[in-house]
Design goal:
The structure holds 2 protein chains of 2 kinds. Chain A is an alpha/beta fold. Chain A has a single domain, classed as Metallo-dependent phosphatases (Purple Acid Phosphatase, chain A, domain 2, 4-Layer Sandwich), CATH 3.60.21. In chain A, 28% of the residues lie in helices and 29% in strands. In chain A, helix 1 packs parallel to helix 4, helix 4 runs parallel beside helix 5 and helix 6 packs parallel to helix 7. Chain A starts with 12 loop residues before the first strand and ends with a strand. In chain A, 55% of the residues are buried. The N terminus of chain A is likely disordered. By secondary structure, chain B is an all-alpha fold. Helices cover 71% and strands 1% of the residues of chain B. Chain B is built from 21 helices and 3 strands. Chain B has a two-stranded antiparallel sheet with strand order 2-3. In chain B, 57% of the residues are buried. The N terminus of chain B is likely disordered. Classes of the chains: A alpha/beta, B mainly alpha. At the A-B interface, helix 1, strand 3, strand 4, strand 5 and helix 2 of A face strand 1, helix 8 and helix 19 of B.
């Protein structure tokens, strides 16, 4: 079958890419439903799956109470509690129902909140992966997932345990006839997140993968961090105390992408590169012959930003940014 | 509609706090204070005080300016909360286009934003061109000429005031300069805008402070003393009132409620636009919070409140009858000035240096607004381009992050409108009325989106900063209804009053309908073209199920 432009449609891979859902279950479910809605055959999730905050919900004698988005919220029955937990998840945070004493142990530092995060992340992510396996099988879609720089290491173990969903970080996988290499690391950030490497180390890590490609010119690079100075990496400059740097009363915007990633794209000139990481720098562009994409992220309001990309064997046919 | 999770009447303050971990943080560009300033700039206080407020005194005798301002407040708040709460549900750039296209239909969203771009381009032509030249350059030259006794400056002032060629050349140069400055980059633009704004507002505040510490008799004496050598007679202050009275102007009319209502149409052209940060919704700190709407409302209240305060101070010092008479043509012909606040203060102090400072401070404001409107138009074009309605080239940015293509297009459109404004428009009031009315179309559509969102896009509605209800009706729906009613009232006032020069509504409706039709046709054409390229535009607006 030929399209009106003369292309053979069966040779064109249609994939949907999104990234940085940060614990928003609503976004994750939308991501899995994108295959049917957008008529794509592959779903690629570019990392930063886990949430950044836990909202303790204190179990009291007659009700539950939580401080959430600046408000004190009270749930007096099971239905209200469920709605409260949903609202917390909706905003990309993890609800944690516990007694006041338990909460106090973490709040006082008696127990390490990192352990609590790990416990909750494993539990919540396992549910997500199970859902992905079910939906992927039902839609006969390839679901490719990796972590991002914000995700703790335990995430990899959960993703590797998936039955059908493909854990694609630090390896080369085949997506609709194209090789795809993936890297969850970012260059250093002011937040000292779990997966950061110096530019040199990042270059070495991705280059080692790229050298294994049989056809770099038709490959897809799924790299969490965008290339430096590409227009997909503009963010507000931060000082040592994580405050926005201002000049003349206005915040200063600087490119924060990776120079190593840019260098590698210029060197290997793959067909397509997929990026996330800088939420506010949504866009598409090109570096040489390579099409580059960062769909951005607004996980906090329950909408998922993504990109639908149609790829012929030797070129990117279309790139379309969508918000679902 | 149920709201089972509620805020308790008395929070104990001991609720468990959030636990967080080290993770990359999204830093939004515009802080809360900057959002208020951005929204407040939309009210153009120096221009409002120099032109908008006092012209109504002679057009609508007996109209109470404070009542007019008070009646403007609920309209301003309605638009703020309709835009603000919808933006909290969809915190991304693009303003009315984003809000309407996602809620009602993309073709309607695009048609509305075509009207918005047309209105903003007219606004640039009006402010950066006509008001800058006639009110700023001409008045400044006249004042400086009078204060310094320089006849050449007075000649130049007369030339600029009467020559359409000079008006076009100077205004066009300012618009091109404004576009060039914005093209320097976002960082340079913001620095420049805030710098010029601070300087301009400082000039306005100096005028206000001078008036605050000047009694009416002191001002009258200073005015008489200044005018005496030019008129060859004393008592110019009283003579201004007498001349206006003889010309049929009543400088001290009794209160008229009927004439207070049209003042709302004048004040609304300055006071109801405090929702502008919706156009940079993706760059707001706390964009999905109710603070977004509150900051818009705060800016509107500060703008209207400060306008009322400044008017009260000027009335007390200069006399409302004198201001009415001066704007009604009672000033001695030898002065040849427009009685704006910076002109009157300069005359009072009779100092060349002070007059120069006031002139430069006033002239600094229009370029701020030009840059501001160019940024707004470029954000709308970005949103169109991201959605595939325009070629991706429109979203091209320079190495300084400046949307150079969008700026060039916006400046070009503004220049085209400026040709009409200078050479074809009947008067400034007509231009202001058409600009405001075109803008009211997308504003009313945003109101409609606010009314319909709970029914059409329930998932998006639940993402709004509040789903609270009043008497069972969602607050967002109430804000939307109030916005639609406000737009309807303003339309009625603009058509009802001869002063606004819209006697034959068919010309305006032809423009409005033509623009809306152009938007719809553009959408359908873009959709057909993209389909041939293998892109389905409908997917851009499709909300994914979250079950």
């Amino acid at each position: 079958m030929r399209s009106r432009s003369g292309r053979t449609e069966r040779d064109v891979l249609r994939l949907y890419y999104a990234s940085d859902v940060h614990g928003s279950e609503r976004c994750w479910r939308k991501f899995l439903n994108a295959a049917a809605a957008y008529d794509v055959t592959a779903l690629v999730m570019g990392g930063d799956l886990t949430g950044k905050a836990i909202v303790p919900v204190e179990r009291r004698e007659h009700d539950h109470v939580a401080r959430f988005l600046g408000d004190a919220r009270v749930a007096t029955d099971a239905a209200e509690l469920e709605e409260l937990l949903d609202a917390i998840r909706f905003n990309g945070m993890y609800p944690w129902v516990a007694d006041g004493e338990d909460i106090q142990r973490y709040a006082s530092g008696e127990r390490d909140t990192d352990d609590l995060f790990e416990e909750i992340i494993v539990r919540e992510l396992a549910r997500w992966v199970e859902l992905a396996d079910e939906r992927g099988a039902a839609a006969d879609t390839g679901v490719f997932v990796m972590a991002g720089n914000d995700d703790p290491w335990v995430v990899d173990d959960v993703l590797k345990s998936a039955e059908r969903t493909v854990f694609c970080d630090a390896r080369i996988v085949e997506v609709g006839g194209h090789e795809m290499l993936s890297c969850s690391y970012a260059n250093p950030t002011p937040w000292s997140s779990p997966r950061e490497l110096s530019e040199d180390a990042l270059y070495d890590r991705i280059s080692a993968l790229a050298q294994q490609l049989s056809s770099p010119s038709t490959a897809i690079f799924n790299l969490h961090v965008p290339p430096h100075g590409s227009g997909l990496d503009s963010a507000t400059q931060i000082d040592d105390e994580l405050r926005p740097v201002t000049s003349g009363g206005a915040p200063v915007t600087v490119p924060v992408g990776s120079t190593a990633v840019r260098e590698l794209i210029e060197e290997y000139q793959p067909l397509l590169t997929l990026h996330g990481h800088v939420h506010e720098s949504r866009g598409v562009g090109t570096i040489g012959r390579t099409a580059i994409v960062n769909p951005g992220s607004e996980y906090g309001n329950g909408t998922i930003h993504g990109a639908i990309v149609a790829i012929a064997p030797d070129r990117v046919v279309t790139r379309q940014l969508v918000v679902g | 509609m149920s709201a089972p999770v509620r805020t308790p009447p008395a929070a104990t303050g001991t609720e468990p706090k959030l636990f967080t971990r080290n993770a990359t943080g999204l830093v939004r560009d515009l802080s809360g204070k900057q959002q208020i300033v951005w929204n407040w700039i939309a009210g153009a206080p120096p221009l409002g005080l120099a032109f908008g407020v006092f012209v109504g005194l002679t057009a609508f005798p007996g109209g109470n300016v404070y009542l007019g301002l008070l009646l403007t407040v609920p309209m301003a708040l309605a638009f703020c909360y309709a835009f603000g709460l919808l933006t909290s549900a969809m915190p991304r750039s693009g303003g009315d286009y984003t809000l309407v296209s996602r809620t009602i239909h993309p073709a309607i969203g695009l048609a509305g934003s075509f009207c918005m771009v047309l209105a903003q381009a007219l606004g640039i032509a009006l402010i950066g061109g006509l008001l800058f030249v006639s009110l700023g350059v001409s008045s400044s030259l006249a004042t400086l000429g009078l204060v310094s006794g320089n006849a050449t400056l007075l000649e130049w002032s007369a030339t600029v005031a009467t020559s359409k060629g000079w008006q076009f050349a100077i205004g066009a140069a300012v618009m091109i300069l404004g576009g060039g400055l914005v093209a320097l980059g976002w960082r340079a633009t913001k620095r420049l805008m805030f710098g010029l704004l601070a300087f301009s507002l400082f000039g306005l505040l100096v005028s206000v402070v001078v008036a605050l510490f000047t009694s009416r008799s002191e001002f009258a004496s200073a005015f008489d003393e200044f005018a005496a050598p030019l008129t060859g007679a004393g008592g110019a202050y009283e003579q201004t009132i007498t001349t206006a009275t003889e010309a049929g102007i009543d400088p001290s009319p009794g209160f008229s409620f009927a004439n207070s209502l049209p003042l709302v149409a004048i004040f609304s052209s300055f006071g109801i636009y405090a929702y502008i940060t919706s156009y940079v919704g993706g760059e707001l700190r706390d964009g999905s919070s109710i603070k977004t709407a509150h900051r818009m409302a705060a800016a509107a209240l500060i703008g209207i409140g400060s306008m009322a305060l400044f008017i009260a101070i000027f009335f007390r010092s200069w006399g409302s009858d004198f201001i009415t008479a001066a704007y009604g043509g009672g000033l001695p012909a030898e002065l040849g000035i427009t009685p704006t606040y910076f002109v009157l203060t300069s005359i009072q102090l009779d100092s060349t240096v002070f007059a120069a400072f006031q002139a430069v401070a006033f002239l600094a404001f229009p370029p701020v607004l030009v840059a501001y409107l160019l940024v707004m138009i470029s954000r709308i074009m970005f949103a169109w381009s991201f959605d595939g309605l325009l070629p991706a080239k429109i979203a091209t940015v320079s190495r300084h992050n400046a949307p150079v293509v969008a700026i060039a297009i916006a400046t070009g459109i503004a220049l085209l409108f400026y040709v009409w404004v200078v050479f074809a428009a009947d008067n400034i009031g007509q231009v202001i009325a058409i600009t405001t009315m075109m803008q009211l179309i997308p504003m009313a559509l945003v109101g409609l989106a606010a009314v319909l969102i709970p029914r059409l896009r329930p998932q998006l509605y639940r993402a709004a900063a509040t789903t609270r209800t009043v008497a069972g009706i969602p607050v967002l729906v109430l804000a939307g209804l109030a916005s639609i009613v406000s737009a309807a009232i303003l339309y009625f006032l603009y058509f009802d009053e001869e002063y606004f020069g819209l006697g034959d509504p068919s010309a305006f409706f032809a423009l409005a309908v033509g623009t809306v039709a152009a938007g719809v046709i553009w959408y359908l054409a873009a959709k057909a073209i993209r389909r041939r390229e293998g892109v389905d535009l409908d997917l851009v607006y499709k909300e994914l199920p979250a079950e």
